[in-house]
User: What shape does this take?
Amino acid sequence: MSVTISNAIKEVDDDSQRAIPLPAVSGPILAKIIDWANHHRDDPPPPYEEDFKTAKTADDIGEWDQEFVKVDQATLFDMIMAANYLDIKPLLDMLCKTVANMIKGKNVEEIREKFGIKNDFTPEEEEEVRRENEWCEER
Assistant: This one.
């Protein structure tokens, strides 16, 4: 499932007992990813990227995965970083869909509060950005 680990294994000879270093992934996060991979090991391969019309939407996250991502934000974002580093596209997609669902329907202030994002715009700069992007606001 992981392109990164698959490539590392190919570089090691069959008789080697050498460890594969994963410096960007902590032990607890790797354990979560292994749990996810074990659960999904028999899943069919995801659709090709060109077949985006049949790809799952942000609303289409399975029940097991919904429970799996019930973690604190720091853990969720660590799992996103690890899935990206390990190149596990189905996991990365599901985790990003989870974040998309967290911000869906929220305004800028609610998103900032949810993720602890400091507003570094002056009121004038913020008003200018809002005017420039008026077209994308829901009415």
Summary: The helical segments are 3-10, 27-40, 63-68, 73-86, 89-103, 108-115, 123-132. The CA atoms of residues 38 and 138 lie 41 Å apart. The chain is about 55% helix and 0% strand.
